[in-house]
Amino acid sequence: MPAAPTRSLQVITGVAAMRTAVRALQQRGETVGFVPTMGALHVGHLSLVDAAAAECDRVVASIFVNPTQFGPSEDFTKYPRPLERDLELLRERGCDLVFVPEAAEMYPQGYGTSIDVGPVAVPWEGAARPGHFAGVATVVLKLFECVPADRAYFGRKDYQQTLVVRRMAADLNLPIDVRVCPIVRDADGLALSSRNVYLSPDERRRALALSQSLRLAEEIISRGERDALVVRERMLALIAAVGGVAVEYVAIVRDGTVDEAPEIDGPVTIAVAARVGTTRLIDNVQIG
Ligand code: AMP
């Protein structure tokens, strides 16, 4: 259920001001939930605001298109930045504060620190997007320093990212509770993504192959298939039949890990990454 709208949404750009604002709320005895985003908000992001509002007294979101998590040939410059619309959506949803930092303050001159979370960041997305998870982990740690909240909310849409953030939080003893929320989809099954706006109508139709292949996997596993190779082949066949979708990987891993599960003998997550035209999409499902 959406949070009850508040009268105002406070927009903060400075790091020191942001920290002070969160500390002031906590000193009043209020708990703070934090939703980090890159903006171009959709209902998936807003579901995280709702989850934070349900568990915390105050909700802080952030909007920052983090340059260091994009590869040199990726879409950093063309990534959508509809800031006024995003602020309106957050205001309507009852978010209390939004942190919109300046790149120059987030990455000061001479900046050189980077967080390497180790093996969980290596395969799948890590292999497809070299340097991506170092960029993610570093900016998430920085955002946690700027917004010292009690809980932080992430979407399961970015399955491996949730593992990276949880690993980092555990390894560095971060005083924040990392919560993971379900994937929000359009009625036809397409996982909501800020990148869906890049898709032409024809590409959007083809993009449905991702969620359809995950549903097929779910179905054949529920009917008793245990061989991950067979599941993967069936998924790839479905995607190939739709056409126009270039698969980067289909990962069938033990749930909560990035380790391949050759036999489906316990809970698994199946994650898929593919390009539809020039748009890179990811999706996943948890089974069992
Ligand atoms: P982004 O703005 O893409 O960096 O995403 C910000 C947060 O929203 C991340 O924790 C994402 O996993 C989450 N998110 C993005 N899309 C969805 C979705 N369709 N359902 C749930 N969470 C999502």
Provide a descriptive summary of the structure in words.
The structure is a single chain. The two termini are 27 Å apart. With 288 residues, this protein is of the alpha/beta class. The model has no long low-confidence stretch (mean pLDDT 97). 38% of the residues lie in helices and 19% in strands. The protein is built from nine helices and nine strands. It has helices at 15-27, 43-55, 83-93, 103-106, 125-128, 132-146, 159-171, 201-222, 228-242; strands at residues 10-12, 32-37, 58-63, 97-99, 151-155, 177-181, 245-254, 268-276, 279-287. The chain has a six-stranded parallel sheet, sandwiched between helices. The protein has a three-stranded antiparallel sheet with strand order 7-8-9, with helices on one face. The longest helix has 22 residues, at 201-222. Strand 3 (58-63), helix 3 and strand 4 form a beta-alpha-beta unit. The protein has two domains: 10-181, Rossmann fold, CATH 3.40.50.620; 194-283, Pantoate--beta-alanine Ligase, Chain: A,domain 2 (2-Layer Sandwich), CATH 3.30.1300. Adenosine monophosphate (AMP) binds next to helix 2 and strand 5.
